[in-house]
Amino acid sequence: MAALLCLAWIPAQAQTTYRWIDRDGRVVVSDTPPPANARSVESRAAATGSAPLPLDVQLASRNFPVVLYTAADCGQPCDDARALLAGRRVPFSEKAVRSDEDFRALKAATGDSFVPTLTVGKEVLKGLAPPDWNNLLDLAGYPRSAP
């Protein structure tokens, strides 16, 4: 009984998700904090320690990490890109291009400044093309439908 009580006190790891309205009135959801001019900022911590990722997702994520490059003025294509990754339950990092430094980092990482851009491991896909994105995710070992 004492062991069970101790387990109840172990804090779960948390990932913070931010939701805000940008200067153009668009709703943005990201794992990166919002800019200073954001309105209606909300943050939500989601427990990640309670349900580990399936083994195939863990392996794909370790071998072929996914990064989504976005920008505030990207609009629907970036929203659709996030939805595609979320629909497949692909763990990804989002890098929002907000400054000249971010722009230079995107260009150095991908060879271009186009958003949305997806990197899966060392592979780069510029622009949202769901068949191409799904094919690359399949080849990297991410399941089509998560359990």
Total number of helices: 5
In the CATH hierarchy, what is the architecture of the domain at 50-140 at level 2?
3-Layer(aba) Sandwich
CATH topology of the domain at 50-140: Glutaredoxin
β-strand amount = 25-35%
Description:
The protein starts with a helix and ends in a 7-residue tail after the last helix. β6 (117-120) and β7 (123-126) form a beta hairpin. It has a four-stranded mixed beta sheet with strand order 5-4-6-7, with helices on both faces. A three-stranded antiparallel beta sheet has the order 2-1-3, with no helix packed on it. With 147 residues, the chain is of the alpha+beta class. The chain has a domain at 50-140: 3-Layer(aba) Sandwich (Glutaredoxin). It has five helices and seven strands.
Summarize the structure.
This protein is an alpha+beta fold and 147 residues long. It is 34% helix and 28% strand. The chain contains five helices and seven strands; from the N terminus they run αβββαβαβαββα.
Characteristic terms for this protein:
147 residues; alpha+beta; Glutaredoxin; 3-stranded antiparallel sheet; 34% helix; disordered N terminus
